[in-house]
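Q: Can someone sanity-check these two? First one:
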Amino acid sequence: MSAFGALQDLRDRAIGRQDGARAARRGFRARIPITRDNVLYGEAVVDARDAGLAGANFYASERNPPYWQRIAGATDKLWLRRTVADRLARVNARAGAAGLELFLFDAWRPRAVQAYFHDVWMPAELRRRDPSLTGAALTEEVERYWAAPSPEDDSGDAGSPAPHATAAAVDLTLRWTDGEALWMGSLFDDVTALAHRDRFETLDADNVSFSDREAQANRRLLHWLMVEEGFAGHPDEWWHFSWGDQMWAALTGAASAHYGLAAVP
């Protein structure tokens, strides 16, 4: 009997190539409307830990490779919409049957943090790798991983907030309840192809690497636990999931999103 019990079948179930999800995600903030007259639009936020979920904000720590410093403006809180937190709690309960739990890295994200990575850190990192990368090509590559921040004037951005600004997007992993994380094949926030959700879905037949096979199985487990609770996963980030925001709508085919910018205490 596998240590994962009834969840073993999720480790064996292929995620499949994410090309369709990448195409659906393209331009989603300009394309997907937010329905403001739905009952969820103004839903309150809760701290994930008050909802029984484990986590620590990655950007508020100094132990956060590859940055190794607290990011200016980061919050210690893990704010989530109540419905999103409830859905995560159900995923957590299912994982708990196998001695596992979710561990959150990030939820609602302050604008200052989003702007720093979109405007400063990621462009500099990409130019370090390829000094010829400029203009629209640079912006496109930045926004593969880091969404443009919501404008300073939130009232002018009700139709297209950055995903984490909605408190409906969350970055997370799986770990054993004793604290040992499952191997996912890359660091959180690894902004390379190694982080792509389908990175380990096309392993060569002669690739017998235990590391790659384990990453494949664990990414599948996390993916299907979340998707079967209604979440949608960012195709280029194995850790990013959302429910009710514009990216979720784009990836699931929903006509509109439930959530705009979140109000946090």
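And here is the second, same format, sequence then tokens:
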Amino acid sequence: MADIIEIKDIHAPELDIYARLSEGQIAHYFEPAEGLFIAESPMVIGRAMDAGYRPFSMLTEPGIAQGQGCELIARCGDIRVYTAEREVLEQITGYALTRGMLCAMYRKPLPTTEQICREASRIVVLENVMNPTNVGAIFRSAAALNMDGVLLTHGSSDPLYRRAVRVSMGTVFQIPWTFLESNHGVDRNSKKLSELQILRDLGFRTAAMALREDSISLEDSRLLAEEKLAIVLGTEGDGLAADTISECDYTVRIPMSHGVDSLNVAAASAVAFWQLGRRQKIE
């Protein structure tokens, strides 16, 4: 049974996770073991638990603990649940909680690239997508629009950062993902994806989303015909590195109108996933 603790001192060290530690410090809280992340709102916390993530502690409003979050807390087992009124919680966290509840949760070991790709037909590759809002939005679109997994370079934002988790509406727990390892074609000291050979070895063709003179339309029938396709998206502003584009099998553009040259990476991802995820439906 959870231990419900009313907050008396907002400077108590057990609240550091919610109030005073950075995202990086939380992620490495038990180093060298897996660290923690913060899930926000009962729905997102529930999705994380459904995916096998274990709660470490919780911070919530009393009304939520006794109402909407009561069943959720009952699932948490023997953890500490800290409670305080909304105004006090905002002093602790520095922002208004979404639906009045935060939960610190244990991270899980990440799968390998091979494990994610083994049964997949559509994979997303994110090269240095640094904005957690964009990462969260891309995950939400990927989960909704028939993508089977997401691979990220180490220059990308952590999908388990609080804002990414919140924007994704918890879909980061519903679609497999991992960071590409340095011995699998990513130079941790580089700002580009150095090679895509591991995906080729796993039977994937690669499609770089980029504006080039030789790019083909997203509607090109060859893309839909690919049995295994990796959709490669680049960082905000600069897009994909030139070397990454040259290594891909296709360079793909989204047809535009009114003189608009490009979309935000999260918006572009949704368009690409909608079109290229349709393969399973047209066979």
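A (reply): Looked at the second one. The first strand starts at residue 3 and ends at 6. The radius of gyration is 21 Å.
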